[in-house]
Structures are given as structure tokens and as C-alpha cells.
Write a structure and sequence with these properties.
Elements lengths: L1 H14 L4 H15 L5 H13 L4 H44 L3 H29 L3 H15 L5 H22 L1
Helix pairs in contact: 1-4, 2-4, 2-5, 3-4, 6-7
């Protein structure tokens, strides 16, 4: 199981460019659809917790899944698998980037990759919104957080904490009404 965790997350790590958010569709396909290691709801929870903790969301998610499957050793194996390809690729790129960064082909390639990453992130946002916005209140929270972060430049950490407080308060009020 440890080797399987390492290999699966290494494959995700090597095949995905653009940071943690760009990895979300691949994590969804691999962990929920292909392997059944997590449900959509669990993965959304891992994303939420991963967003609230230090580090890249995809690495944090790998740690959670690894822990779920094989305890602390599984968490270490999954996390190592996720970061190993990046470590190797970045080391190689760092050795040669100064020699090739000025080439037009390299600059155009980076521009193309940035656009593809934007599309992957938007796809992840769409899927997460479909799963996370379940009623009017969650829709209002989504819009309020987006506006506060984008237009008012409120810290995402503050908005995550406030959203959690609103969610708990709404749950308590709904529970009291039942």
C-alpha cells in the first residue's frame, strides 16, 4: 500500500503543472473516480482543510489520503510521492533555466502553460462550486467571500475563518428549528 500511495501521487505530481489547484481535477479522477479512496464530499473536506493549513492544497490532500489509507506511514509515502517529481523537475530546470529563459520558444511555451493552468483551475472551481453550493446560504457565502477577497482585498484566511463561523452558526440555528 505504501508503494502504491507513493507511485500514484508521484504520477499525479509529475503529470500536473501549475501548482496545487491545477492538480485538483486529476486528484478527483484518480482518488474518487478511479480508486474510490475518497468520496466527493470527503475530497471537498480535504480541499477545505488543505486550504486552511500551511502548504500546497494538493500536497495536503495527499497527506490526508495517505493517512486515511495507511496511517502515518501512508501520509509520509503519499506526501513524498507528490513532492518528489517536483523536486527533481525543479532541480533540473534550475540548472538550465538561465541558459534558455530568453528564447522566444521557451517564453511562448510558458505563456501556453499559464493559459492551460487557468483553464484547469476554472474547471476545479466549477466542480467545487457545484458540490459546495447546496443552498441559498452557501451561495451567498461564495459570492460574499469572492467579493471580499477580490474587491476589498480581505485576507483569505479571515474569510475562511468567518465562513466557518457562519457555517457553524447556520447549523446551530437550523438544529434549533428542528
Amino acid at each position: 500500500m505504501l508503494w502504491e500511495l507513493f507511485c500514484i501521487f508521484a504520477r499525479i505530481g509529475v503529470c500536473t503543472f501549475g501548482g496545487g489547484y491545477a492538480m485538483l481535477p486529476m486528484l478527483q479522477r484518480e482518488l474518487v473516480d478511479a480508486r474510490g479512496w475518497a468520496t466527493e464530499s470527503e475530497l471537498m473536506d480535504y480541499y477545505a482543510i488543505g486550504q486552511c493549513t500551511p502548504g500546497v492544497i494538493a500536497v495536503n490532500t495527499a497527506t490526508f489520503i495517505g493517512y486515511k489509507k495507511a496511517g502515518v506511514c501512508g501520509a509520509i509515502a503519499a506526501t513524498a510521492g507528490m513532492v518528489f517529481p517536483s523536486l527533481v523537475i525543479i532541480t533540473v530546470i534550475a540548472a538550465f533555466i538561465q541558459q534558455f529563459a530568453h528564447l522566444a520558444a521557451v517564453q511562448h511555451a510558458f505563456a501556453g502553460v499559464r493559459v492551460a493552468v487557468c483553464a484547469l483551475v476554472l474547471h476545479s472551481v466549477y466542480k467545487m462550486a457545484k458540490q459546495g453550493v447546496v443552498d441559498v446560504l452557501t451561495g451567498i457565502i461564495l459570492i460574499a467571500v469572492f467579493c471580499a477577497v477580490v474587491f476589498l482585498r480581505v485576507s483569505p484566511v479571515v474569510m475562511i475563518v468567518l465562513s466557518g463561523v457562519v457555517g457553524v452558526a447556520a447549523g446551530v440555528i437550523r438544529g434549533a428549528r428542528s
